């Protein structure tokens, strides 16, 4: 079984060259100054790297999930922030539209988003509810033939700069939970107030709180079906979890490469740090963990691309393990660098902070385990 083909390796090469030419120069600025790399996003759009899975008809890369995975991995190796920004943009927003939007919505919005001319954000989480997404409180009410939407969204990546929002709202009683949620495609307008949120890692990704006050939408702004939002959300988040696992693989690789280079150059006790067996064992542990995460992530994407029912289990396994591995590898990288690793000069320090969100965003480690256990109960493991 070949998990990756020549086409995937070609996409990897393009993404790596792009990451080194365009992302590397802004990675520290994103982190230190919370700088949102608008111009780099536009450049990524020109190469189809922003929306690798979106149909070429709408300006996307036309690739499968493995294509997206190798792109995100290469971006993450240079900047966890840039990779996560692209993941939220290209998978949570654009791939969801690619799979569920109407032709008009795709023609009007998706082409501009794929080109990087307009920014898209996926707005599900709220102050009340992240893990318990079925309890969201943002309300969409039908008044005089149109929808009127009110509520607050929280932690929205790209939210500060987005031109379009894919917003999940309640379209029925709270007790109906996931059966009364609908997704709306809303353009940025005065009814949406976006405020910045300062975060620990993945800085420069435009994380925002959104206040929606009497936003108006028509039936033709619904993505998927009225009260059918849960299907859009679960499909999109299942794909997103493998994509986040790919970000994690990239972040882990970035941290590992930093540590290896440091260990080869640092001298102490009359030897290079890399000559101590403990350092060699640490680097070996890191590499073994990265290859484990990588294999899981590629395998999960392969299962999606080949329409295997085993994908749902594996996307949760890949996300859980890869996120944990990214945090652990980055922690070890900081340790190898000693005091330097704890300083703001160190890239390992940045990767360590970037890695942590991967255990929280798009479902925490605990939510991954909750879903995996539910699948065990259903007899999904064989
Ligand atoms: C930087 C950043 C970017 C983000 N980007 C986006 C975005 O673009 N769009 C979007 O919609 N959201 C986004 N999020 C939100 C993210 O998905 C949520 O933060 C996440 O799902 C967790 O939700 P919560 O913060 O409400 O935590 P909670 O759900 O309140 O969880 C708190 C704790 O309880 C644990 N827990 C939850 N359920 C259980 C259980 N059943 N058993 C035991 N423990 C449990 C959790 O694991 C966690 O440790 C982002 C968050 C951050 C920080």
Automatic annotation (TrEMBL):
Domain Acyl-CoA oxidase/dehydrogenase middle: 121-215
Residue ranges occupied by any Acyl-CoA dehydrogenase/oxidase N-terminal domain in the UniProt entry: 5-117
InterPro entries in the record: Acyl-CoA_Oxase/DH_mid-dom (IPR006091), Acyl-CoA_Oxase/DH_mid-dom_sf (IPR046373), AcylCo_DH-like_C (IPR036250), AcylCo_DH/oxidase_C (IPR009075), AcylCoA_DH/ox_N (IPR013786), AcylCoA_DH/ox_N_sf (IPR037069), AcylCoA_DH/oxidase_NM_dom_sf (IPR009100)
GO molecular function, one term: flavin adenine dinucleotide binding
Domain Acyl-CoA dehydrogenase/oxidase C-terminal: 227-374
Pfam families: Acyl-CoA_dh_1, Acyl-CoA_dh_M, Acyl-CoA_dh_N
UniProt-listed SUPFAM superfamilies: Acyl-CoA dehydrogenase C-terminal domain-like, Acyl-CoA dehydrogenase NM domain-like
UniProt entry keywords in alphabetical sequence: FAD, Flavoprotein, Oxidoreductase
Cofactor(s), names only, from the UniProt record: FAD
PANTHER family given in the database record: ACYL-COA DEHYDROGENASE, ISOVALERYL-COA DEHYDROGENASE, MITOCHONDRIAL-RELATED
Family listed: Belongs to the acyl-CoA dehydrogenase family.
Protein name per the record: Acyl-CoA dehydrogenase
Native organism: Pyrobaculum ferrireducens
Lineage of the species this protein comes from: Archaea, Thermoproteota, Thermoprotei, Thermoproteales, Thermoproteaceae
